[in-house]
Amino acid sequence: MSRGRLSFGASLAAFGLAALFAWTSSASAALSTTEDTTGPVGSVDDRAPASPSNVVAEANLVDFQGEISWDLSADDFVRQSPTGSDFTSGGTFVRTNDVAGYQIWRSALGGDFELIDTVAAGELSYIDTTVESGVPYTYAVTAVDGSGNASASVESELVSFGPPGKAETELPEDVPPAVQEVTMRFDSDIDVNDDAAVDEFVANLIQLLFLLGIDSSRIIINSVTAGSVIVNFEITDDPDLPASDVVASLNEVVDSDPQVFADAGLGSLLDYETSQATSIAFGEVEADSDASTTLSFTNGSTEDDAILIVSSSVQGVGFFAFPDKLSLANGESGSIDVSFDASEVGNVNGTYTGTLRIITNDPGNPLMVISLSATVVGGLSGAVADVSTQTISFPRTTINSFSTRDLTISNKGGLDLSVTISINADDAFSVSEEGTFTLAGGESKTVEVVFAPTEAVIHTGTITVATDDPAHPQFSITLSGTGLPEGGPPPLVDGNGVEIFGDFDGDASITFDDFFQFADNFGLTSASASWDPAFDLNGDDQVNFDDFFIFADNFGKSGTYQ
Description:
Elements lengths: L20 H10 L22 E8 L4 E7 L6 E5 L10 E5 L3 E8 L5 E7 L4 E4 L7 E9 L9 E2 L3 E2 L6 E4 L8 E9 L7 H17 L7 E8 L2 E7 L7 H14 L2 H5 L4 E19 L3 E10 L8 E8 L3 E4 L2 E4 L4 E9 L8 E11 L6 E11 L7 E3 L3 E3 L3 E2 L4 E9 L5 E9 L3 E3 L3 E5 L4 E8 L6 E10 L6 E11 L7 E2 L5 E2 L11 H10 L23 H10 L5 E2 L1
C-alpha cells in the first residue's frame, strides 16, 4: 500500500508510468491551499484546521472503483466550547469540532484537480465509482472547518484503472511530422557556459543512451541550460522503430533504474518529461470565416482491455478543439477537430497564435504540444496611433504674451483607440485638453499647445500621448521655447561686438535647431495667421530667401546676449 505526502507529485516508479511525471506536475500546481486561508467569514474564524495525513488511493479492479483512505486531521475531535463570556455561574458550553468535513479532489490525466465530493468529519475513507478504464488518477484530501477554511491538501500517489492504450496519431498532410522531445534535469554542478564541460556531459549522456539501446544517431541535442543541468533533446523518427517506441524504452529505464544516470557521472535525475512537438498553420483566414483541420487517433494496443484516453486543451483566442476528450477501445479510432474562427478575434487583421495540448494515457506518447497560427485578412485594421509631430519648438516669445502650436493625434486604424494626454513641464506650457478620450477608426483630434513665458529664460517640457495601440503605446513630444524680456530681445553679439542673427531658440548659438524653426516659418508673411517677426531677419514683412541668406551667413556662430 502506498502512502500519501504533503506535496504534489507522483511516485512514477510504483506504476511504470514515468512519462506521466509531466501530468502530475502540472496538475499539482492547480490545487493550492494554505494553512491560514481565510474563508467567507474569516473575520470570525480565519484559522484552517490541520491537514489529514497518509492519503492512500487504491484501484479496485473487481468492482471498478477507487478506494481512498486517510488518517484524521489532528483537529478532528469534539471539544466543549463556551457559548458566551459569562462564567460567573459556570457558563454554558456546546460540543464543537474544528473539522466540519473532508473535501475529496481528483486529477485525471494530470489535469486540474476538481472537487468531487465532501464527507463528514470523522470519516476515514471514500469510494469513487466514477473512474474510467485506462485513466491514471491522483487524489487529494483537505480538511475544512465550518467557516470554509481549508487545510493544505495531501495527495495520494498515482493510481491507474486498467492498462493504457497505445496512441497512433495521424496528422494532416500539411502538418509537419511531430518531433519527440525529451527534457531531463540532473543534479549536476557543471558550468553550462564551459563548452568543454558541456561537450563532455553530452558525450556521457549519449554514450549511456547508446548502452541502453538508443541509437545515438537518432539523438539531436537542442540545449543544455542551467537549473541544475537541464538537457533537451529530440529523438528522430524511423520507420523500423518509431520514436515513440524509443521513448517508451527510455521511460522503462527511468522507471526501473534511474541510478544509471548518476553512475554515468551525469548526476541524479531530478525531473523527466517527454512530449511531441509540431505546428499547425491555418494561413490566411478571411473575416467572418473559419479554418479547420483534423487530428486522428487510433488505439493500437494489443491488450484486450486497454483503453486509450485522449484529451485536448487550447490556449489562444479564436482557436478551438472539439471534442475535448476521446475514449478509444482496441483498434478504435477517433478524431479531434482543430479550428480558428476570425469572428472570435473581432475580425481584426493580424496574425494570431495559440497552443494545443494533446494528453494521452499512453506512456510512450503522453503529451503533444502543437503550436497554432492564423492570419486574419479582409477584416478590420486594429487601432493605429499617430501624432503630427514629436517636436514642438516655439518662436521666441515676449514674457506675459503667448504663442500657440497645434498637435494632432490620429487613429489611422479601424478600431477605437484610447488616448491619454499628460504634460510634464513648467507653467510656461499648457495644453488645451488633458486626460483620456477615444478616437474612432479614421478620426483625429487637434489640441492646442500654448507657450506663455513669465521669465526671460529657455523653457522645456514634454507632452506624453499614451495609447492602447500595442505598436505605438506612447509618444513623447518635446517642447521648447525662449521667453524674451518686454521691450524686445537684447542683441546677440560675438567676441568682437558684431551682432549675430538667427538664434530663434535663445541658446546663444545658431544651430540646426534654429534652422528647423526657420524652415517651419519659411514663406510666411505678416498677413499669415502664425506670423512671427523674429524670423523676418531683413524686416521686409516676409520670410524668404533674403532672410535665408542672412541666416546662412550666421550659421554655426555663437555669442553672448548684451
